[in-house]
Write a structure and sequence with these properties.
alpha+beta; two-stranded antiparallel sheet; 3 helices
Amino acid sequence: MNMNLNQLAILQQLKSGMDRFRAGHPKFPLFLKAVSQDALREGTIVEINVTTPEGKNYCSNVKLNAGDLEFIEALKNLNNH
C-alpha cells in the first residue's frame, strides 16, 4: 500500500487525536475493550445517547448483524497494527 505524505500526515493526526482522547477519557477505552470481548455478537443492540449542555437529547440504536461484526473486526485489526 503506497501512501503519499498527505495521507501519512492525516494518519499521524488521527493517531495523535486518539492518544489525546484516551488520555482525557481513560475509562472509555476500557469500556470498549470489555464490550468488544463480551457483548458484540449478532443480535446485540448498541444504543448511543447524546445530551447537549442545554439538555437536548439525541438517541439512536442499531441491532448488529453479521456484516457489522465483520466491519468491527476489521477496525479492531487496524488498531492492532
